Amino acid sequence: MADTRMTRRHALGVMGTAALALYGCGSTGGDEDGGAEGGGEGPVKVGLLVPLAGVYASLGEDMRAGWELWLAENGGTLGGREVQTVVADEGDGPDTAIPALQKLLQQDRVDAVVGIVSSAVALGAQDLVNRSKKLLIISNAGANGITG
């Protein structure tokens, strides 16, 4: 008989998917923040912020591969909308991650940000993402001040 218990990883995936679907991420054209007012149509632009260099690069590559696998298994869609992924390097900490996050939010105009390995990065990202009124799904960091 198969084990039907939900793992933490599966639960996070389900919650993340539900959150993005309920959030009604807008398309990359539309209101001044880059999203379409009221949800809109068109693709959902997701910023994947993971370490691709430094000590946690292997974890970042695994997270990236997991994201790509999930998208492939779901037809590249989220809530029936095409997903466009913009990957940014978290690096070794806030010194590299915060500029990468700013680029995702301001230049790439993503609708949501997923990833983040470092708790220090997660804490530093909180205010930036809140000000941009975008969704942040932290996949790995565990700083109690933001994920607890």
Give the tags.
148 residues, alpha/beta, five-stranded mixed sheet, 5 helices, 18% strand, globular
Total beta strand runs = 5
Strands ordered across the widest β-sheet: 2-3-1-4-5
Task: Give the helix proportion (percent range).
Answer: 40-55%
Gyration radius, rounded = 15 Å
What is the chain-wise order of helices and strands?
HEHEEHEHEH
Instruction: Give the averaged pLDDT, no decimals.
Output: 80
Report the sheet-strand fraction: 15-25%
Pairing-aware structural class of the strands and helices? alpha/beta
Q: Provide a count of the helices.
A: 5
Describe this structure in words.
The protein is an alpha/beta fold. 43% of the residues lie in helices and 18% in strands. The chain has five helices and five strands. The protein has helices at residues 8-23, 57-73, 94-106, 119-132, 144-147, and strands at 44-50, 77-78, 81-89, 112-115, 135-138. A five-stranded mixed β-sheet has the order 2-3-1-4-5, with helices on both faces. α3 runs parallel beside α4 (119-132).
Quick summary:
The chain has five helices and five strands. The chain is an alpha/beta fold.
What's the helix and strand layout?
Blueprint (H helix, E strand, L loop, with lengths): L7 H16 L20 E7 L6 H17 L3 E2 L2 E9 L4 H13 L5 E4 L3 H14 L2 E4 L5 H4 L1
Parallel strand pairs: 1-3, 1-4, 4-5
Antiparallel strand pairs: 2-3
